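Q&A log
Question type: sequence-to-structure
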Amino acid sequence: MKLYFAPDTCSLSPHIVLQELGMPYELVRVNNRTKRTSTGEDFLSINPKGYVAALELDTGEVLTEGPAIVQYLADLMPEVGLAPAAGTLARVRLQEWLNFITSEIHSGSSPLFNRALPEEVLVIFRDRLFRRLDFIEVNLASRDYLVGDGFTVADAYLFTVLGWMKGFSIDLDRWPATARHMQRIGARASVQAALAREAELLPVR
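Response status: OK
Response body:
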């Protein structure tokens, strides 16, 4: 398989999952501005949506959208336990978290990347995001992981998007259980390996 990624984006989530599974894969860096890849391809010909992550399967088919990709990967090796079995209530709970993260945290933080927005507008978006982080804090106050008793793809996704908070000058220590979750996930060998591999690939022009 081939994972198309860009540094400091949501593509880190499926990359962590690939490392957790120990599956062989090729890593291809994408320039989000020029839409060129480190292998010289036009990324728009791979994913017309124009953004990472994209996972090219051995069949040549391409999967997009992080929550879909991580569930697909987890189901390739269910014995690893990165996602509850399909059709169970626990799986629906996982999907519930993935949808919350993508719609409320991932999308909710996107406006903060826009430095052109006036501060009074950014305050509105930050306040809304903080209320969502309050919800995560309540849930993580009584458990180490989002779903069940162990690490799942939802934890990989949450770690990825919360990693952007420092760039927004948002101190996660305001949410201590969430900060502990970040430290716990960040210490995993899979996370360290994914970050190291991404750092090895030079920028694409």
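Response note: The mean pLDDT is 97.
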